[in-house]
Task: structure prediction
Amino acid sequence: MFFDFFEARLNDVPFYLLSCKGTLDCLDREHSILVPFPHDPSRIMDIKQFRFHKERLVDPLFFAIPESWNGLFATPSVERLIRQRGLRGFVFSDAEQDE
Result:
């Protein structure tokens, strides 16, 4: 697991915060569209199109990747579970969808 869950209560309603413990090296750099920093092409400034090595993703899973400091990713079954349980505070988009 790459995240710890911390419970917080507001008006006696539980909310959960995620704390990242580590990252998963699963970005398919060859098929993703990466934008390097101009002054250091070895570092990634932005990712325009994500592609993942699916065989590295064990479902269900929340994960972060080392190339993106602000991304939280989840496998499709995580989205289904969250929607089925009516959990609030999540917005989902397909990271691999073409722009």
Q: What stands out?
A: The longest strand covers residues 40-49. The chain has a mean pLDDT of 89. Helices lie at 76-84. Residues 25 and 65 are 6 Å apart (CA to CA).
